[in-house]
Design brief:
The chain has 194 residues and is mostly helical. The chain contains ten helices and no strands. Helix 4 (85-93) runs antiparallel to helix 10 (174-192), helix 8 crosses helix 9 (146-169) and helix 9 (146-169) packs antiparallel against helix 10.
Length: 194
């Protein structure tokens, strides 16, 4: 019985990971349950043993994508010297590799307004993910008050996500796309250091 529960939990994680990649790569609307299950190597009929609805799966995938991103960024801050941690986050986020692999990257830049339009559990998972990510960034900011730390962290994160979105939108022009990443990096570093 114990083995079966572990297998069921691992299957659920596999479905969530697959859905997370697909949602970030294609978007919420373009990711169907049947496609997720097929990509995960499972039958469509098994879906309801793990999730009540597509929305429940999408919320779990968004939550897991944020958790994975936070974990990666926490590891980066742990390796960076004090005083350089926010800079390390900025440098890690605004890369060509991140731009070129939305299915593996930031769920904020990939899902954006779709999560808000989805509402319900998807929107709640998205907003919770943003709040937790902002807390990570806020902890790296030095400012006289906590509110100023939060404001600066929010501004930096806004520049990062916006810069990544712009760089992706300009990929037809490699030079313009690289320039968008560079300019966003400069703007984020300026905000971080003020």
């Amino acid at each position: 019985m114990r083995r079966s529960a572990e297998e069921k939990a691992e299957t659920r994680r596999q479905i969530v990971r697959t859905a997370g990649r697909m949602i970030r790569g294609r978007g919420l609307a373009e990711t169907g349950v049947a496609e997720v299950m097929a990509e995960a190597g499972l039958t469509h009929g098994g879906f309801y043993r793990h999730f009540a609805s597509k929305e429940d799966l999408a919320a779990a995938a968004v939550e897991a994508a944020f958790a994975h991103m936070r974990s990666r960024l926490e590891a980066i801050t742990a390796k960076a010297p004090p005083g350089k941690r926010l800079e390390a986050l900025i440098e890690t986020y605004l890369t060509e590799a991140h731009r070129d692999q939305p299915e593996l990257g930031c769920v904020m830049a990939s899902v954006g307004m779709e999560a808000q339009r989805a509402g319900g559990v998807v929107q709640a998972a998205y907003e919770d993910g943003i709040a937790r990510l902002l807390a990570l960034f806020t902890a790296q900011v030095t400012a006289p008050t906590h509110k100023q730390q939060e404001d600066r962290a929010q501004a930096v994160l806004s520049v990062l996500v916006g810069g990544l979105l712009l760089a992706r939108a300009l990929q037809h022009d490699a030079a313009a796309s690289k320039r968008a990443l560079r300019n966003a990096r400069v703007a984020a570093l300026t905000l971080a250091n003020n």
